[in-house]
Amino acid sequence: MKVVFVEPETSGNIGALARVMNNFGERELILINPQCEVETGDTRARAKHAYDTVKNARKLENLDQVKKEVDTLIGTTGQIPDNYKWERTHLTPIQLRENTKKGGGDKALVMGREGKGLSNEELRKCDVVAHIPTDEEYPVMNITHAATVFLYELHKIEETEKREKISKEKETLFKYVDQIVDQLQRIKKPGETKDITKRVLNKSFLHKKEAYALISFFKETKRKLEDQ
Fold first, then answer.
1. How do residues 44-67 score in pLDDT, each as one tens digit?
2. pLDDT (tens digit, 9 = 90+) per residue, 159-178?
3. DSSP code, position 174
4. Which residues pair with 84 in a beta bridge?
5. What is the largest CA-CA distance in the chain?
6. Are 104 and 71 spatial neighbours (Cβ–Cβ below 8 Å)?
7. How much is the pTM?
8. Do 221 and 181 contact (CB within 8 A), yes or no?
9. Which terminus of the chain has fewer CB atoms gathered within 10 Å of its CB, N or C?
10. Do 15 and 47 touch, CB atoms closer than 8 A?
C-alpha cells in the first residue's frame, strides 16, 4: 500500500504520517508537490524511528503519475456535501477494508492538504473515495489521525496470497464499457453513465478471474449489439 500526501504544508505532519505508516507496516510514502521543506529537525522529531520513510519518500508532481503506478487509487475526504448533485458515494473505513480484501492489485491511499483536503477534481481521479464519519459540529480530522484510522482498518486484512496486478484488465474492461454505452443511443447522459459504471466496478476491487469474466461478458454484449 502506497500512502500519498498531496501538497503537505507542514514538515512535522510529514514526519508524523511516516510514523503512523510504520506503525502499520507501510513504508512507501509519496509526496505530491510539497509546499514545505521535507527533511527538517521537526520532521525527524515527529517521525522518530520512521525517519527512513521520510528520507526515502518520492516526490511527484500530480496524482496522474501515481495513478499510472497502481490499480486502485483510494481518495479520502473529510467533508461530503449532503445533496443529490454530489456524484460519488463514500466508503467508511470498515467498508473500505471489506471491499479491499476482496480484490487484488496495487493500491494507494491518498491524503489531502492539511488546510482544505483534496479538490473535487482530484477526487474524481480516484477510483474509490472514503470518508470517516465524525461529529457534525467538528467533522474534519487531523491528517495523521485520519491516516491512523484508515491504516488500522486496512492493516486488519490478512494477505493469504499475492495480489495480482489488474490494471491492464481494467483498462480493457473500461474500453468495452465506453464502446457499449456509445452504441446504446437511448442513454441520455452517456458520459455520466460511463463514469458511474466504472466507479461501481472500481468499488468491487476485482480479482483477475472476475475481470476476465466481465470482459468476456461485455465483449459478447458488444458483438450482439453490432449484429442488430
1. 999 999 999 999 999 999 999 999
2. 544 456 777 888 899 898 99
3. H
4. none
5. 68
6. yes
7. 0.74
8. no
9. C
10. yes
